[in-house]
Amino acid sequence: MSDQWWINVEGERRGPLSESELRKLCQNGGVDSRAMVWRHGLGSWKPLGSIDGFQQAPSTASSEQTQDEVTTSLPADLASGVVAGPWRRYIARTVDIWVLGLLLGYPLGYFASMVSPTLQHWLLETPALLLGWFMAPFILFVEALLFALTGTTIGKALFNVNVRNASGNRLTAGMYLARQARVYWSGLGTGFPLISLFTCVYQHGRVKQGKPASYDEGRYIVSAAPMGSGRIVLAVTVISLVLLANGMVTAYVNQTERESDYNDDYVISQRNLNSELREIATISNESLPMMVDEVTRLDRQEALSNEYRSYFTLVSYPADELDPDMVEEVMRPSLIENACTNPDAAFFRENGIVLSYHYSGNNQRPIRLVRIDPAVECQ
Description:
Layout: E1 4-9, E2 12-18, H1 19-27, E3 36-38, E4 46-47, H2 67-72, H3 76-79, H4 86-115, H5 117-125, H6 128-150, H7 154-158, E5 161-165, H8 173-187, H9 193-208, E6 220-224, H10 229-285, E7 290-291, E8 296-304, E9 307-314, H11 324-341, H12 346-350, E10 354-361, E11 366-372, H13 374-377
Parallel strand pairs: 9-10
Antiparallel strand pairs: 1-2, 1-3, 3-4, 5-6, 7-8, 8-9, 10-11
Helix pairs in contact: 4-5, 4-6, 4-10, 6-8
């Protein structure tokens, strides 16, 4: 970038120009020794005739601008010739990506949980680097919207970084969006981890050598004004808060992922358990119905969700001749003893299966459903 020049002749700024182009202008009389010129690293705008190698530039009376006039016609950071260094630019962009990533990621996760548990599970299971690659274009687009509304971004405002076109004018929203597209490909390498590493190192090397980033060359000037102590404190505070927020979100995501894994394991174990219950019921029903005593017939058994139900008929009594409360009072003690001590009921006790007993009269009308929970009754 050090061989690119900007000139100001009677208030009109032109550039960037290569040194050979500037010399050609001098030879053709397009500029004279009084024209104010600037390039990165020069320090300030200076008359062309004061620059080594241009002392012989022709002088005319048409150029009456002074250095002070040119300096005050430009923003302070460009007038002082301060070029944004690679690390300041990198940290400013990182802050933008972090902040916007958090602001976009939280509502995205909430929306996913509302729309589809499967989508939420996919987001939780997807590695953070892959999610970052997926969200990169959306983050850059939202950053462009923010720039269109405010003329800057969070990171650039914190670190006093400014982006202007080659003539030193502020970018329009369209210009900044076009620059974002170039940043996406040439600067971030689409956000894909390995590619992004190489593109960032390449652009860092260019800027460190005083050259523009490849996506800025011939189009944009990235400058920076000095940061006062107050701005430095503010920047450190914001970065600390962003890191804290990122840590809290990461902890929440990890906790949610652990709960999701636990729920998945629980669902799988429940499916296996219910499958075993159905198998037990199928085998038992092969020998049913059968009389268990003189008045009670076991008709069938059924596997429910975390429950095993037996259907009995009191063959000597119609339902309307029996008091349901009395039936339960008589039956419950023996049912509890069977659930808690019978070796054949060990499977149900060990797996927390509720045993339920449905009694009907000989007229097929229900009398009472008695439920025995071994976890409660067998203490």
